[in-house]
């Protein structure tokens, strides 16, 4: 992490320390106890991680792992097949056995979305379709309150227990808190969304992932934000300019970030110059998100919330926040 970016991380880390473990409230402690109490009664534990580039490293461990996107049918099928195979192995090849899988992970990592995807693809009986319930999926952490069971496969019968997300009451190091806040594992209401968004922009500015956006508006795509706004009247009626998840708004946001980073002539290692760039980006993002030009704190919060949502849902691209260890060095040692 660049020195100037670390300055933003340190400020956010101080805010996290000031919470004194407030994210680990009674509900999370209760969820922790409930998960531990069920461990002796399940056949398999499935941990959901935001691994991305970590796959090469994870495959060197003793744990089986599957890379997937909960919106990818093929990825979910691969996961279901892996779970079926593991359950059959545990049950010594019985085809009509019943297996129970405990799904665990930190808050907002996508457990409920995976359960629903497994449920949609894995169920086989038409008569069951109206009876099997779905897990509640939300972009906010802590929406799963209780442990709930969902049937996801037959022959063998497999039930998945969706659990509330659990964090440690104390983070391993000062870097963990800001990164978890950025991913949405802790509630934004505990900190200032603007500070979290500043940290996000500091990371985006210090890396070269934005260069992948250079040609995004070519080949028939819209060439600029102004063109996006002028042509918005031709879009389907379901597309609302105030909806920041619309494709043309996302493209405008990417364009703003690309233009601001690529045209920046300052020194990103300098904290003050990086802060100046971020301030300019917030002003430009207000226009991209079609938010009032008023620079009040509420407007900054609104822009920050929209930007964080696009990042967390993957609309800004794929970013690995941690540096994966060199697998070759791990093997040698």
UniProtKB/TrEMBL annotation:
<dbReference type="GO" id="GO:0032543">
    <property type="term" value="P:mitochondrial translation"/>
</dbReference>
<dbReference type="InterPro" id="IPR006073">
    <property type="entry name" value="GTP-bd"/>
</dbReference>
<dbReference type="GO" id="GO:0005739">
    <property type="term" value="C:mitochondrion"/>
</dbReference>
<dbReference type="Pfam" id="PF01926">
    <property type="entry name" value="MMR_HSR1"/>
</dbReference>
<dbReference type="InterPro" id="IPR027417">
    <property type="entry name" value="P-loop_NTPase"/>
</dbReference>
<feature type="domain" description="G">
    <location>
        <begin position="100"/>
        <end position="210"/>
    </location>
</feature>
<dbReference type="GO" id="GO:0003924">
    <property type="term" value="F:GTPase activity"/>
</dbReference>
<dbReference type="GO" id="GO:0005525">
    <property type="term" value="F:GTP binding"/>
</dbReference>
<keyword id="KW-0342">GTP-binding</keyword>
<protein>
    <recommendedName>
        <fullName>G domain-containing protein</fullName>
    </recommendedName>
</protein>
<keyword id="KW-0547">Nucleotide-binding</keyword>
């Amino acid at each position: 992490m660049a020195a100037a970016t670390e300055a933003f991380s340190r400020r956010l880390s101080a805010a996290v320390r000031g919470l004194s473990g407030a994210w680990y409230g009674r509900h999370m402690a209760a969820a922790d106890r409930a998960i531990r109490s069920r461990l002796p009664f399940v056949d398999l534990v499935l941990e959901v991680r935001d691994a991305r580039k970590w796959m090469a490293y994870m495959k060197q461990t003793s744990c089986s792992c599957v890379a997937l996107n909960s919106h990818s049918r093929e990825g979910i099928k691969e996961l279901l097949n892996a779970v079926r195979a593991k359950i059959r192995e545990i049950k010594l090849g019985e085809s009509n056995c019943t297996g129970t899988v405990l799904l665990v992970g930190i808050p907002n990592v996508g457990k409920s979305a995976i359960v629903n995807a497994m449920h949609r693809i894995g169920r086989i009986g038409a008569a069951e379709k109206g009876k099997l319930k779905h897990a509640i999926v939300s972009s906010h952490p802590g929406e799963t309150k209780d442990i709930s069971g969902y049937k996801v496969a037959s022959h063998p019968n497999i039930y998945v227990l969706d659990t509330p997300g659990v964090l440690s009451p104390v983070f391993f190091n000062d870097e963990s808190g800001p990164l978890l806040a950025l991913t949405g594992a802790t509630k934004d209401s505990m900190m200032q969304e603007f500070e979290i968004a500043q940290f996000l922009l500091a990371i985006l500015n210090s890396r070269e992932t934005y260069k992948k956006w250079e040609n995004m508006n070519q080949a028939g795509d819209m060439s600029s934000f102004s063109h996006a706004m002028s042509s918005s009247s031709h879009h389907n009626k379901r597309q609302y300019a105030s909806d920041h998840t619309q494709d043309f708004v996302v493209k405008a946001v990417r364009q703003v970030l690309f233009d601001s980073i690529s045209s920046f002539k300052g020194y990103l290692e300098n904290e003050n110059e990086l802060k100046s760039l971020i301030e300019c980006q917030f002003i430009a993002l207000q226009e991209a998100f079609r938010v009032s030009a008023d620079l009040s704190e509420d407007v900054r919060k609104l822009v920050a919330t929209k930007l964080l949502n696009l990042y967390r849902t993957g609309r800004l691209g794929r970013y690995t926040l941690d540096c994966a260890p060199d697998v070759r060095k791990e093997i040698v040692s």
